[in-house]
């Protein structure tokens, strides 16, 4: 591909096509007014965003999304932080985690048999590993698909007498099956660990992960891709901001702009359309938690009717998502 072609390339948005993240990711984009059209039906793995040009949607597995963001084949994507940290050695050099999304929460943990009553910490585990090595000449076996996260975490705890048994599924079953003594795996409710008579070490949480909106630093960020990213991120940010604020409206004739500005400032509210016009109506956007204190302040200042409502979107000239991205590309 020539430089010019690369610079004109459309933005590629990578979206989970299956598994735990798929439904939540689609709902997340839906709330931001981004719906996907799959031109040739469900089996087509490329799609478009309705009403938004310059972007293609790639339907991939959560782990393939990490690979494509890392190589620069995709510009933006949703995936789990656990997969980012596991699959990419220096993730912060090739990607930007723009925002955690509040779903797909899971901890990557070190879990040992519940029967190991005296083993509660990584230091205890180190003792077990050393004893196994000395007495039986065998290394502690750790079943996991998180090979890199395990190596880094064990090294940071000075634990070296172990061997990784790579597992591609049903990892928690390894101790009972006799293929490993302990496991490193992801857990959400803890039900799978309990069902397999395993417990998490007190200091055994390697990473608290959730789904993230991730941008690639290496993707070809030409004008088309930048424009599409700005449109996508502004909708996402507008929806997020709308969820975090309430609109408060009141008629305030007897209040000076200074006093109003001072009240707004104190409660973290904004006056997006300025202080009152000739009709005396003021509009404030205030953090959800500050709604009732603000209403009280406005009443004290002489407001009569005060209305409060939720908003669908709050679009602003800039937003934290696009700023975070532009700082890196
Ligand atoms: N309870 C959970 N178990 C596993 N993953 C979870 C859980 N909750 C959230 N996730 C997140 O979802 C990501 C993808 O998990 P998912 O199970 O959908 O795919 P996978 O395990 O990579 O593939 P598959 O299960 O289809 O082989 C995980 O890496 C993690 O970030
Ligand atoms: O703590 P819990 O709520 O019990 O969830 C944890 C389990 O869920 C995941 O498996 P998944 O169902 O994705 O199957 P997989 O191992 O084939 O990916 C994960 O690998 C654990 O086994
Ligand atoms: Mg899974």
From TrEMBL:
It comes from the Bacteria. NCBIfam families: hisG (TIGR00070). Catalyzes the condensation of ATP and 5-phosphoribose 1-diphosphate to form N'-(5'-phosphoribosyl)-ATP (PR-ATP). Has a crucial role in the pathway because the rate of histidine biosynthesis seems to be controlled primarily by regulation of HisG enzymatic activity. Residues 62-236 form the ATP phosphoribosyltransferase catalytic domain. Pathway: Amino-acid biosynthesis; L-histidine biosynthesis; L-histidine from 5-phospho-alpha-D-ribose 1-diphosphate: step 1/9. It is an enzyme of class 2 (transferase). PANTHER family: ATP PHOSPHORIBOSYLTRANSFERASE, ATP PHOSPHORIBOSYLTRANSFERASE ATP-PRTASE. Belongs to the ATP phosphoribosyltransferase family. Short subfamily. GO terms for molecular function: ATP phosphoribosyltransferase activity. It holds the Pfam family HisG. The gene is hisG. The keyword Amino-acid biosynthesis applies. CDD domains: PBP2_HisGL3. The keyword RNA-binding does not apply. This is ATP phosphoribosyltransferase. Keywords: Amino-acid biosynthesis, Glycosyltransferase, Histidine biosynthesis, Transferase. Its EC number is 2.4.2.17. It catalyses: 1-(5-phospho-beta-D-ribosyl)-ATP + diphosphate = 5-phospho-alpha-D-ribose 1-diphosphate + ATP. InterPro entries: ATP_PRibTrfase_cat, ATP_PRibTrfase_CS, ATP_PRibTrfase_HisG.
């Amino acid at each position: 591909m020539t430089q010019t072609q690369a610079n004109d390339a459309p933005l590629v948005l990578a979206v989970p096509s299956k598994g735990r993240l798929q439904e939540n990711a689609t709902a997340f984009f839906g709330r931001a007014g981004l719906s996907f059209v799959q031109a040739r039906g469900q089996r087509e793995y490329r799609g478009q965003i309705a009403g938004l040009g310059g972007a293609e949607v790639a339907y991939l597995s959560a782990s393939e999304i990490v690979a494509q963001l890392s190589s620069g084949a995709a510009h933006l994507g949703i995936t789990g932080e656990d997969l980012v940290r596991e699959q990419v050695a220096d993730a912060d050099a090739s990607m930007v985690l723009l925002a955690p999304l509040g779903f797909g929460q899971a901890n990557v943990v070190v879990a040992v048999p519940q029967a190991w009553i005296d083993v509660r910490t990584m230091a205890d585990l180190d003792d077990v590993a050393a004893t196994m090595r000395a007495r039986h000449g065998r290394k502690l076996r750790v079943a996991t698909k998180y090979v890199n996260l395990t190596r880094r975490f064990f090294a940071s705890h000075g634990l070296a007498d172990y061997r990784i048994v790579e597992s591609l599924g049903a990892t928690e079953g390894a101790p009972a099956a006799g293929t490993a003594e302990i496991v490193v795996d992801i857990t959400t409710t803890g039900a799978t660990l309990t069902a397999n008579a395993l417990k998490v070490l007190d200091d055994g949480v390697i990473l608290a992960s959730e789904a993230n909106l991730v941008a690639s630093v290496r993707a070809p960020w030409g004008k088309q891709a930048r424009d599409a990213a700005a449109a996508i991120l502004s909708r996402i940010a507008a929806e997020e901001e709308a969820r975090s604020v309430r609109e408060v409206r009141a008629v305030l004739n007897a209040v000076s702009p200074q006093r109003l500005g001072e009240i707004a400032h104190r409660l973290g509210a904004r006056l997006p359309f300025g202080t009152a016009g000739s009709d005396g109506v003021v509009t404030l956007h205030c953090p959800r938690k500050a709604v009732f204190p603000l209403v009280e302040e406005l009443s004290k200042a002489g407001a009569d009717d005060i209305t409060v409502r939720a908003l669908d979107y709050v679009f602003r000239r800039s937003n934290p998502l696009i700023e975070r991205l532009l700082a890196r590309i």
